[in-house]
Here is the input.
Amino acid sequence: MRRRGPRSSRNILATTATAFVAIMIVVVAVLRIDGGTAQALTPPALEFTSDEQGVGDIIGEAIMSLEQSSGPQQPERGSRHLGWFVHIDMDEDTARAPVVIKPEIIDLKWNKDLSGAQTTTAAEAYWADPRIQTLSDDMAPAPGTLLSKVTFETGEFAVPSASLPGQSVPDMHELLVSLGMPIVEPGAGDVIESIDSAMGLWTLTNHQHAGLLQLLLDAGDLELLGATTDRLRRQVVGLRAEPASFPGTARVLLVSMETGRIVGIETVRTTDEPPLKAGDVVAYNLWEVSE
Here is the structure.
């Protein structure tokens, strides 16, 4: 999305006949130190530059960029993303325990016959507290380390439908409903929640991304956060909403300013839940991850 100036533990290890999973959760390691004050338990929140435009303008620009940029010609079964989810050991030391954030890259490929495979590899780890710079080799696996590989025999990978989703806005609505979005009058938070699930299963075309953005706009309760740089150093715009199904949290959807594609979703606390505080980032999934 080209703009004028700066304007602003679900690891898929098993499936059942009644459930599907394609979003990973990564456990953070709690590393204790002696003494000191309270330390960061989660990654720094993204900082957004306010934008004078409205949500409709931003989504309109993104859809125009989608029409002009390249992307998959057909939806693809599978997804590659970098993800992280907070897990905190609850004990008396937690209040002063710094943590190392250890994201993982999940590469899922599945087939029409419901066979497939998923590999999980380590991504670059970092301290939750940006003031701590040194990370020794024994604190996290080296980037690229294979952490797990799961294979699915024919019929084992359970999804609502193995058929390629269509390209229209109603087709995207049908896809999201199959993944848990309310059929009637979904809120923007519910739409984002189901987009997260959809993008864990599929790599979608630009036209389909445009349909997802249109559904978000139609929901009508999006907050525009503005522009920022995401955790892969890409220029993005943030759109925020609170899903009814997960009170106390908000979802922040990240849209590429270059291509208009949805490239990330972050989850933040909106209320205190000790030791976490309102505003803490508790999960993120980032797509368009290079090989």
The longest strand covers residues 76-85. The radius of gyration is 19 Å.
